[in-house]
Fold:
Amino acid sequence: MNHRLLAAAIVLQFCCAAAWCADALRFRGADYVSLKDLTGEGFLNGTTELTHWGRHIVIALPDRDLIVENGGDRIRDRDGMVHHFERPILVDGEEWFVPVEPCAPLFGYEIVTTDPLVLAADDKRLELGRRDPFGDYPFARVERLRPEWRAARLTRSLEVSARRGRYARSVALPGDTVLVVRRTVWLDGVPWLVVTIDDEMLESFLVEADRLAASSTGIDVEATRIARLFAAARALAKNERAIRHGPRDRLADSVALTSDLCWSLRPCESRLYDMVAERAAAGRTASVTQFVTGRWMQQYPFALDDLLRREDRGDYHQTWGLHSWDHPKSGNFMNAWYPASLRGDTLAQEKLMLEWGIAPGIAYRFPGLIHDKTRLETIIDLALVPVDCESWVSGMRTNRPPTRIDARGGSILLVHGNGNEPGGVERFADWSVANPEFDFAPLALFLDPESAMRDAEAEAVLVVD
Structure:
């Protein structure tokens, strides 16, 4: 008997059971099932409730209670034991998808067959079709990622990759462009580099190492504008500070909109990006920097693809910063991490970005805006610029310095695009309507070496006094 006949025979054993049909989601080689389908009346007959500020899901089944904890990377069973998922819950809008295989013993169902995928519990069964929306996505194989710190001047025009993968896009850089090389990495077996243009826009690209070597000559990296920016960042770090605003004299009518994407279980704030797109469609400067975490990327492939699609369509200008992989949300945050662990967390985040074809940008935001001198210097040593904010929008009306004050020209704004602070998005919408004269300028314009150094010197005087 071949394997298809055997599968059919097994399924026939359940022919008298009540059948319920739904679709499983396949993502990067694993099957997931919607919690709504799994716990519905047609199968396990339970309920789900989102609790703890969008961090936990309480699942009540007839014979057991379960709690999905920590944003979906673990589950607590009825005996209080915690089981960690190798692949955490996926989120698509208001639907949660749990990994089929590891959840079977926890939820009390059996995997009858895998092709077709059939689950059974008591006298009920759940027949699952498969949809694989990312089956053809060209995820890169990323190896040997390590920091680099050198500079090169192009001797001729060079084509570099602004984006790889599904939304691949190339840009031709003119001769005499100065590039700072920040990473070396092997993508799909070929050596590539992450480079950043040494100008005020600080755009990061991917380029094959051999092609850059054949089209450039090395120069002193310490003579670059980016090196001056890092010197200013180090001066700020001495007083446990990061950049909060840009040069007000040049940015009197501009703010920098930044969106933090830390792990969550809530739907993403697509309305935030719709607002930015509307501003761009009206002919205004409209840029947003996504400070993204690895956990969020891992759990929100649909939302991430939507952001990349918006960028590809040209809805608005978009850049990508780092916000850690793990994003602790309590205690001392990243200050509790050893420098080596922080480095590993950061490179893990960049690795996932590269798998999706995203060139990691030069900006880094610490979770909770919490950092000490050691952690700041660890990030700077990775050729990343620590960026805080001046106006955490959900709390800016409280007027609590230094990060919860009303936005003004040169302010860096922080809004959560992950759904965890809907009040912040509403407040940003109100502020945008009340202040139509402000442009949403690229964050890079706010990362000014001279302005940051003046802030560092002023801070040093205040500390001494």
Summary: The chain has three domains: 16-131, 142-222, 225-464. Residues 5-16 have pLDDT under 50 and may be disordered. The chain has twelve helices and 27 strands.
